[in-house]
Design a protein that fits this description.
The structure is a single chain. By secondary structure, the protein is an alpha+beta fold. Helix content is 34%, strand content 18%. The protein has 2 domains: 66 residues, no CATH class; 33 residues, no CATH class. The strands form 2 sheets. Strands 1-4 form a two-stranded antiparallel sheet. α1 packs across α2.
């Protein structure tokens, strides 16, 4: 990474080495949702055909879709060690949290 690629931590808003540890994470978060109707259709086809592989030959739908666009953020080592990291990153992705206090 080049110096201009560095941004503050997406969770605490501090620099990547604010604790003195020279490690950090670059994380891409993508929020997905299941398409329930497609899951039901696929399950029905599997039951009808009697075999999953055979059913997929005739009907292999996308059963999940992205909600919003993926976002790539930097997370300092300190924040990465905290519990519920994924939930906090999802908040950042949705815009609910703007990288305030931890």
């Amino acid at each position: 990474m080049k110096a201009e690629d560095f941004k503050p931590c997406a969770l605490c808003g501090k620099g990547m080495m604010h604790t003195g540890v020279p490690l950090f994470y670059r994380v891409t978060v993508e929020h997905l949702g299941i398409k329930m109707r497609e899951v039901e259709r696929a399950a029905g086809m599997e039951q009808f055909m009697g075999h999953v592989a055979l059913a997929r030959v005739f009907h292999d739908p996308e059963i999940a879709e992205a909600i919003g666009k993926p976002v790539t953020v930097l997370v300092c080592q300190s924040c990465a060690m905290e519990p519920h990291l994924l939930a906090r990153l999802a908040e950042v992705e949705s815009g609910a949290d703007k990288g305030g206090e931890t």
